[in-house]
Amino acid sequence: MRALADFSTRAKLMVGFGLIVVAMALSSFSSWNGLARQRALQQRLYNDDLAITMKVLELRSAINRERVALLSTLVAGSTVQAGFGRQLEAEEGAIRALLGELAAHKDADQAFAADYARLVNAYQEYGVVRDNDVLPQVRSGQRAAAGEAATGRLQNTFDRLRTVADEIAAKQMQEARARMRDGEALVETAGATLIILNLGVVLLAFAKTVWLNRAIAVPLREATTVAARIAAGDLRADVPAGTSRDEVGQMLRALGDMVQSWRTVAAETTRGVATLTGAAGEILSSTAQAAASTAETAAAVSQTTATVEEVKQTSLLASEKSRAVSDAAQQAARTAAEGRRALEDSMKGMESIQEKMEAIASTVVRLSERSHAIGEITATVAGLAEQSNLLAVNAAIEAAKAGEHGRGFAVVAQEVKSLAEQSRQATRQVREILGEIQKSVGAAVMITEQGARTVAQGVERAAQAGEAIRGLTDNMTEAAQAAVQIAVSSQQQLAGMDQVVLAMENIQQASTENAAGTRQAEASARNLHALGQSLRQTVTRFQF
Predict the structure, then answer these.
(1) Which uninterrupted H or E stretch holds 215?
(2) Of 369, 377, 371, 373, which is closest to residue 427 (Cα–Cα)?
(3) How far apart are CA 399 and CA 409, in angstroms?
(4) What number of CA atoms fall less than 13 Å from residue 268's CA on the CB side?
(5) Residue 234 pairs with which residues in a beta bridge?
(6) Mean pLDDT by 10 residues, the chain (544 residues)
(7) Quick one: which of 421, 419, 382, 417 has its CA closest to 396?
(8) Which of 140, 151, 1 is nearest to 71 (CA)?
(9) Which residues, in sequence order, are CB contacts of 428 under 8 Å at separation 6+?
(10) What is the rounded end-to-end Cα distance, in angstroms, of the chain?
(11) CA distance 486 to 492
(12) CA 544, CA 230: separation in Å to the nearest integer?
């Protein structure tokens, strides 16, 4: 037992539970062995004894049916004798099949092998008498002799065959009952063995529980009591000395060393807490003053940052306005340049119009001159028409004087007169048209002269406007350049303000971080002071 007490806790648990597992394994093996033997008995019972018995009974039934079929052939008429013959052959086949099935059990049961040989010999004797003495006489129609043989020698062999079959069936039933009794005894033995083994496992588990309780639970309970007193602040508790070499004994010895160390630590902690509390108070006072100064600095930096932000917004607005003025000036310069180009195009158009008006005036003058020439030609044609008319009249007079010989000439004179009249009328119409054309040409000449003068005045005024627009364009260009310079200066000023704002934000962030660090230091000092007070209260709880 002393050697077991020095085992480790793991070894104790493994030994205790290992014994229980071994006992349970033995119990399980015993149960499995009993079940295996019971299963083997049942297999022998069902596969050998009962199977042989059932097949022997089926064989006996088949022999009886074959006997009935044979006797039926003796008394049946010729019409149904063939049917009984086929039934006789079928029963013989069934008997041979059953004998073949019974032959499969000879190797498993040597006693049955001898009985099977007796059964086969009895059936062979029965078959010899049936095939040699009865069936030939039945086929030859000698029913009386066949009946005598069937009730004589064949009946004797049949009785022996049936007796052998009954003996085999009875013997197999006795073996089956014996196996059933063996199975019942085996079940009772296995049950008793299992109960004994289970009781042994229970007793072993109980003994192991008591032993583990004394070896592990009791020392742990004592250690728990000491730990509870230590948790309550009583370091004066004495830890029971552990004598065993297992983990529990090691834990008790370590607990005793720990209590002694805690007593030393508690004494040193008491002295350190007093020093820590005084230093924490001084640090808290210094950090509180630094936090106040840092807060004032952060507030001043915040105000300066706000002022710089306002200046930045003003500069941003001025930059936007100067950019808008620059854009407007550049747009005005572009518009003036476009107006200048449009005016130059207009002047070129006016000069072209002036040239075309001069060409139209010269053309109208030439048209007037051609109209006068046409009038002179028309007057000449009119004079020729008058003369032709006079010639026609004179020709008519001469034709009248000539009489019959001048009649054809009179007709020609009449036609000439008619043509001269038509020419005169056409000439008069042409003269009227030419008069209207000359009036229109005169009006066109006057209008052309007025248009030429107007175009000349427009060209002169367009030239004056061009000079004014050129001056305006130059002024707008200079103004746009000045506006661009102003916008660039404003943008540079805005960039400078952005840098100033960024610098102030960095200063503000640094001030904020400094203030946060100071507050954190103040909080740490306050926590340190509170920790000192808490440690003082904690140390006062321990008694050593």
Answers:
(1) none
(2) 377
(3) 6
(4) 6
(5) 543
(6) 56 64 68 63 58 75 76 62 69 79 71 78 81 73 72 81 81 76 74 78 75 67 71 64 60 66 68 67 69 68 68 66 64 68 69 70 69 69 68 69 65 68 72 72 69 68 66 64 64 66 70 72 72 68 59
(7) 417
(8) 151
(9) 382
(10) 39
(11) 10
(12) 10
Which tokens sit at 332? 């005005």
Q: What are the angstrom distances between the C-alpha of 397 and each of 349, 404, 408, 410?
A: 70, 13, 13, 8
SS3 142: coil
Amino acid at 464: Q
Contact 147, 193 (CB under 8 A): no
Beta bridge partner(s), residue 426: none
Phi, psi for residue 543 in degrees, rounded to 5: -115, 125
- Angstrom distance (rounded) from CA 66 to CA 118: 20
Distance CA 41, CA 452 (A): 149
How many angstroms separate the CA atoms of 136 and 148, rounded?
Answer: 13
For 94-133, give the DSSP string: HHHHHHHHHHTTTTT-HHHHHHHHHHHHHHHHHHHHIIII
3-state helix, strand, coil in the chain (%, to 5): 95, 0, 5
pLDDT at residue number 137? 73
CB 231 within 8 A of CB 203: no
* pTM of the complete model: 0.34
Length of the chain: 544
Q: Which two tokens stand for residue 327?
A: 């854009």
Which stretch of DSSP H or E encloses residue 522?
helix 407-541
Distance (Å, rounded) from C-alpha 433 to C-alpha 436?
5
Which residue, chain included where needed, has tokens 């007070």? 533
Number of other CB atoms surrounding residue 231 within 10 Å = 8
Residue 154 tokens, joined = 């064949």
- Name 73's Cβ contacts closer than 8 Å, sequence gap at least 6: 81, 84, 85, 88, 138
What is the C-alpha to C-alpha distance for residues 468 and 471, in angstroms, rounded to an integer? 5
Q: In sequence order, which residues have a C-beta less than 8 Å from that of residue 38 and are 6 or more positions away?
A: 183, 186, 187, 190
- Measured in whole angstroms, the distance separating CA 307 from the mean position of its chain's CA atoms is 53
